[in-house]
Amino acid sequence: MNWLAAKIYDPFMEGLEEACLRQWRGELLSEAVGRVLEVGAGTGANVPFYPETVEEVVLTEPHGVLREKLKGKVPEGGPFVVSEERIETLAMEEGSVDTVVLTLVLCSVADPAGALGRLFRVLKPGGRLIFLEHVASERPGRHRVQRWVEPVWKVCAGNCHLTRQSEERIGEAGFEMEWIKRESMRKALPFIRPSIRGIARRPGSVSENNQKSS
Ligand SMILES: C[S@@+](CC[C@H](N)C(=O)[O-])C[C@H]1O[C@@H](n2cnc3c(N)ncnc32)[C@H](O)[C@@H]1O
User: Fold this and answer.
1) Is 80 left (phi over 0), alpha (psi -120 to 50) or beta?
2) Which of 110, 120, 149, 163 could be a cystine partner for 136, CB 3.0 to 4.6 Å?
3) Is the CB of 165 inside a 6 Å radius of any atom of ligand 1?
């Protein structure tokens, strides 16, 4: 994301946050438990919605301008730790995290399949991926528009792709879908509106986890 896009990210998103995203973030984040990893945390739009019961929330944000804004939103003395790691170079141990949070990130990573594979591995068996992503439209006319706009949009908006099939990529990475909802993001530009949100699980169970650690 270029410097200007990062600077205007919050005001650009405000109408959309108010129309639907804030409510969706609140519903999704209420499911976060234990040790949490949020990748590409941006300016910290999810921070107010973490339940008080979480043990630790590692917020990674590689972009310097966004990370400074994120640090400003993180309350002192809370469970939050801010890091500059990219998904590609995550140093977290395999099977060490209870919840991974990914909101509006798969659109802009260079290799979504590789990223999801890495996130799958850092989750404990039975751990959950909370996701919210804008995706390719199922309507042929809108999909065509997304394909036309995408080359220019990617350059202006930090490699943000409009035609990603993120539901398929999540399944291919080995996750089991607990639930998924497809809904239009009201107040977004028409080519960004198609979205998915939900929770997917790394197969396995918490008891399997406990046996490994005992
Ligand atoms: C559209 S913003 C979304 C920010 C925030 N998650 C939200 O919901 O508002 C996309 C974010 O993904 C981050 N990102 C892009 N590629 C990444 C990568 N390879 N590793 C980690 N974060 C990445 C960007 O720095 C940016 O913060």
Assistant:
1) beta
2) 163
3) no
